């Protein structure tokens, strides 16, 4: 029953990190962003059931001290995605030789993207009670505030009224795309960090594959195409399509980075190349990630590393979830 005690502890810690957001300070915002990590650590290091206990305990704690809706939001947005990804990470089966075959990290990355997109879409649906007009107005308010903060008011030194309105409309439409893109990045980073922490404590049951060997299945490319088509539809179907598009493009960008890590292994100047690449990603504010996403998509679709050398990552086998 150790998983119950660890789950209760992780749930309370995660709930506390979530609840401090009411302080509305930069430190509170930072602590809030770290809320999924306790759930990930106990799920990976003890038992995935610890994550379920943490979701229930943390949700109940927030429901009692803040509001029932906040407690439900914690469970759906913070705890359950962390538990689900940990559960998938610990899936395994013995192969013909009796060795354990673990859930492939490439397929896990695809689930990170899907989980991020579904969470963002569910959060929008939950927060507005299924009212798309309310969701659209909320997204427009956020976009308008961003534009007003970044650009001078309309006039000789700022954007003209038509351009400002077009920019606000574009950002409103892209809100689920950008939100899912950021959330997919956070989930992938947190899962990697939690796995490394648990691995350092000798509690991680599986070996963690090197990042350069990351390769998503070809089905991820199909999901991206379907998502781009869905994104053209109005309503919450379009919201889900936008969220899936943003999350999977980010996942492919991460695979593109992994492919470059792979192609530069053993090469002179590798540290300089990778440092320059990350600096460019930061300086261009993510614009370079579009090229990396296309590279990652091509790597999955055409098997570039299998064709031109490298670690030759295999297409991951199908393991039941």
UniProtKB/TrEMBL annotation:
<keyword id="KW-0812">Transmembrane</keyword>
<feature type="transmembrane region" description="Helical">
    <location>
        <begin position="272"/>
        <end position="298"/>
    </location>
</feature>
<feature type="transmembrane region" description="Helical">
    <location>
        <begin position="240"/>
        <end position="260"/>
    </location>
</feature>
<keyword id="KW-0472">Membrane</keyword>
<feature type="transmembrane region" description="Helical">
    <location>
        <begin position="53"/>
        <end position="85"/>
    </location>
</feature>
<protein>
    <submittedName>
        <fullName>DUF2232 domain-containing protein</fullName>
    </submittedName>
</protein>
<feature type="transmembrane region" description="Helical">
    <location>
        <begin position="174"/>
        <end position="195"/>
    </location>
</feature>
<feature type="transmembrane region" description="Helical">
    <location>
        <begin position="215"/>
        <end position="233"/>
    </location>
</feature>
<feature type="transmembrane region" description="Helical">
    <location>
        <begin position="105"/>
        <end position="126"/>
    </location>
</feature>
<dbReference type="InterPro" id="IPR018710">
    <property type="entry name" value="DUF2232"/>
</dbReference>
<keyword id="KW-1133">Transmembrane helix</keyword>
<dbReference type="Pfam" id="PF09991">
    <property type="entry name" value="DUF2232"/>
</dbReference>
């Amino acid at each position: 029953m150790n998983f119950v005690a660890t789950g209760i502890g992780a749930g309370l810690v995660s709930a506390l990190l979530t609840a401090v957001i009411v302080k509305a300070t930069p430190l509170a915002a930072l602590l809030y962003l770290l809320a999924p990590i306790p759930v990930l650590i106990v799920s990976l290091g003890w038992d995935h059931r610890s994550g379920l206990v943490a979701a229930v305990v943390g949700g109940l704690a927030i429901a009692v001290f803040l509001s029932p809706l906040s407690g439900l939001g914690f469970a759906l947005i913070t705890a359950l995605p962390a538990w689900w990804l940990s559960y998938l990470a610990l899936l395994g089966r013995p192969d013909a030789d009796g060795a354990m075959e673990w859930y492939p990290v490439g397929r896990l990355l695809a689930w990170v993207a899907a989980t991020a997109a579904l969470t963002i879409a569910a959060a929008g649906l939950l927060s507005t009670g299924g009212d798309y007009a309310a969701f659209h107005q909320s997204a427009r308010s956020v976009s308008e505030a961003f534009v007003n903060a970044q650009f001078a008011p309309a006039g000789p030194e700022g954007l003209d009224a038509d351009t400002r309105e077009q920019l606000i409309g574009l950002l409103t439409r892209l809100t689920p795309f950008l939100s899912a893109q950021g959330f997919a990045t956070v989930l992938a980073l947190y899962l990697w960090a939690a796995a490394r922490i648990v691995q350092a404590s000798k509690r991680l049951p599986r070996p963690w594959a090197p990042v350069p060997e990351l390769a998503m299945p070809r089905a991820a490319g199909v999901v991206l195409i379907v998502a781009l088509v869905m994104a053209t539809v109005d309503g919450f179907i379009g919201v889900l399509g936008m969220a899936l598009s943003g999350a999977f493009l980010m996942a492919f960008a991460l695979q593109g980075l992994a492919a470059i890590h792979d192609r530069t292994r053993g090469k002179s100047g590798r540290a300089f190349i990778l440092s320059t690449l990350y600096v460019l990603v930061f300086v261009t504010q993510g614009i370079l990630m579009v090229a990396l996403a296309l590279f990652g998509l091509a790597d999955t679709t055409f098997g570039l590393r299998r064709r031109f050398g490298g670690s030759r990552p295999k297409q991951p086998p199908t393991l039941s979830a």
